[in-house]
Structure formats: C-alpha cells, structure tokens
Design a protein that fits this description.
Length: 180
C-alpha cells in the first residue's frame, strides 16, 4: 500500500515536471515551426542560437526567393554542392546579417561572384573545389568586410592569388591552386 507522503511527493513531482515542460514547450514549438517553414523554402538543416534565432542553414538545392524574408537574422549559409547557384546568391543579397557563405563543391562561376559584394555583412567565404578563375579576383576584392577567403582547389592562378593579396592585404587567403 502506498502511503500518503509518497503519493504527495509523486503528485508534486508530476506538477513540477508539467510546469517545466510547459515552460519550455512554447519556445520549442516556435523553433520547430520556424524549422519546418525554412525547410519548405529549401533549407536542409537549420541551427538556432541561444536566443532562438536562426543562426545557420544548409541547403542541397536552390533557396526559395521567400527565404530572405523568413530568415533575416541568418548568419551562416552552406550551399556546398548546390547547382544553379546564381539564383540562391541573389536571394542571399537581401540578408543583412549574413556573415559566412560556403560555396565549396558548387557550380559557382566567375560571373556569380559579382553578387557577393552586395551582401553587406559578408566576412568569410569558402569556395574550395570550384572552377573559379582569375576573372573573379576583382569582384572578390570588392567585398568590403571580407576577412577570410578559402580557395583550395580552384583554378585561380598563383598570379591571381597574389593580385588579390595586393588588393586586399588584410584578408586571410587560404589555398588557391588546384592540385594537378
């Protein structure tokens, strides 16, 4: 037979658990709804910061045009492996909080790089294993706040890398010439 004290302890423990679950459920439900919305706009994976804002998103396909309005606080976008990337980059130009773009193993072309200076907060770009050439060097140099540029496995020549270093001496440029 269960005594009264044990029953009361169980009862108040249950009430405390329900309070905790209820207290955390609303933010969780909001994050879940936001995640579902962003996935419907092309995001494959979404991460949130401590305040519940979307901090990063990874894509396998094109970014829907409505994505910029749904996620204006986004800081990192991973477009690794995405094809027809120009359309996605056009969407990203509307994000003011964007700090990092990963374009590795994508079909990014020299003419697509013209869109990157339009992303006002952009600081880090990874473009490893792409077919970029020296033709994009001047456009890369126009990215005002650029701090780190990863170029391993591109077709940008040693002269192109050196020209970029002269144009932007404060930018840390990693890699450059594709291994033969």
């Amino acid at each position: 037979m269960v005594d009264q004290r044990s029953l009361l302890v169980c009862f108040f423990s249950l009430i405390g658990s329900l309070t905790i679950v209820y207290g955390f459920s609303e933010p969780f439900q909001k994050r879940r709804a936001k995640q579902h919305q962003l996935k419907s706009l092309g995001a494959f994976a979404v991460a949130f910061d401590a305040n519940g804002a979307v901090s990063s998103a990874r894509f396998r396909h094109l970014i829907a045009p409505e994505f910029a309005e749904a996620c204006d606080e986004l800081q990192v976008v991973d477009l690794k492996g995405v094809v027809r990337i120009r359309q996605s980059l056009q969407v990203l130009t509307r994000l003011k909080s964007l700090r990092m773009v990963i374009l590795s193993v994508s079909d990014v072309r020299d003419e697509d790089i013209q869109l990157l200076p339009k992303i006002s907060g952009l600081r880090h770009i990874w473009m490893t294993n792409t077919n970029l050439t020296d033709q994009c060097v001047e456009d890369l140099a126009k990215i005002d706040r650029l701090e780190i540029l990863k170029l391993d496995g591109t077709d940008i020549s040693a002269d192109g890398i050196e020209r970029l270093r002269r144009l932007r001496p404060n930018v840390k440029i990693e890699g450059g010439i594709r291994a033969q």
